[in-house]
């Protein structure tokens, strides 16, 4: 069991490093080279899936530890985000909404509610204030995201391809932000806790604004999929 735990940890670390390498490459080539963007994006996606599953292993080894409880929640949120990103591209290209789309978004909402419950429990127990705040912030975000995605899926036939492309960009940037946050939390202990956890989000916020402006466009049916050659 100990060997399995160490193996899982090393796989987690290596996959995490891959996300930090592949993520910037995919971002850089998004508007420059479609082929390279896709290659780096696929590597980022699969590495992130491995990161999420190995995070779950850490939780099941120590479910009583608040840090691993938080990792379980954030790993599930990130996994849902990268799946949303992949499905957004598929829906943009004309694929139909399937039952799986609703399943993982409902699961995302349930995990968000679980994180809100943990925020209350740990705040009541007097746990170090960082964790109740983090559980609350990410829990609220997950619940809101789940509701928004389900609404989009219910009206998918009314949405322009550009809407799904925007969703793809937003979710993948969010997943990269989470990966960067995991790195600072585990490797930048010399920084205050709020910089470790929220610093990457603030640092990458200009990138979110840049992409939002770059791909700004109407939300309803306006642009045909063939115009969206950047994907």
Helices and strands in order:
Layout: H1 2-28, H2 34-61, H3 66-92, H4 99-124, H5 130-154, H6 161-187, H7 193-214
Helix pairs in contact: 1-2, 1-6, 2-3, 3-4, 3-5, 3-6, 4-5, 6-7
Give a verbal description of the structure.
The chain has helices at 2-28, 34-61, 66-92, 99-124, 130-154, 161-187, 193-214. With 231 residues, the chain is mainly α. Helix 1 (2-28) packs across helix 6 and helix 2 (34-61) packs antiparallel against helix 3 (66-92). The N and C termini lie far apart (43 Å).
Q: What's a quick, concise take on this entry?
A:
With 231 residues, this protein is mainly alpha-helical.
Structural class: mainly alpha
Helical percentage? over 70%
First-residue to last-residue Cα separation: 43 Å
| Main beta-sheet strand count, sense and barrel state | none
How do the helices and strands follow one another from N- to C-terminus?
HHHHHHH
Write a concise keyword list for the protein shown above.
mainly alpha, globular, 231 residues, disordered C terminus
């Amino acid at each position: 069991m100990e060997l399995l735990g160490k193996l899982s940890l090393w796989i987690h670390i290596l996959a995490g490093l891959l996300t930090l390498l592949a993520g910037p490459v995919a971002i850089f080539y998004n508007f420059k080279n479609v082929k390279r963007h896709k290659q780096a994006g696929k590597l980022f996606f699969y590495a992130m899936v491995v990161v999420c599953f190995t995070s779950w292993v850490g939780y099941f080894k120590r479910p009583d530890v608040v840090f691993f409880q938080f990792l379980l929640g954030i790993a599930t949120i990130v996994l849902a985000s990268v799946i949303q990103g992949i499905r957004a591209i598929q829906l943009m290209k004309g694929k139909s909404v399937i039952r799986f789309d609703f399943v993982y978004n409902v699961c995302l909402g349930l995990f968000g509610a679980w994180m809100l419950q943990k925020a209350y429990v740990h705040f009541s127990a007097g746990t170090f204030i960082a964790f109740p705040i983090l559980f609350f912030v990410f829990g609220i975000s997950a619940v809101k995201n789940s509701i928004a995605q389900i609404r989009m899926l219910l009206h998918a036939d009314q949405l322009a391809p550009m809407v799904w492309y925007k969703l793809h960009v937003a979710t993948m940037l969010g997943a990269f932000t989470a990966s960067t946050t995991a790195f600072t939390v585990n490797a930048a202990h010399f920084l205050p806790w709020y910089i470790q956890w929220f610093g990457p989000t603030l640092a990458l916020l200009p990138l979110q604004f840049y992409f939002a402006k770059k791909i700004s466009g109407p939300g309803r049916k306006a642009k045909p999929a063939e115009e969206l050659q950047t994907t």
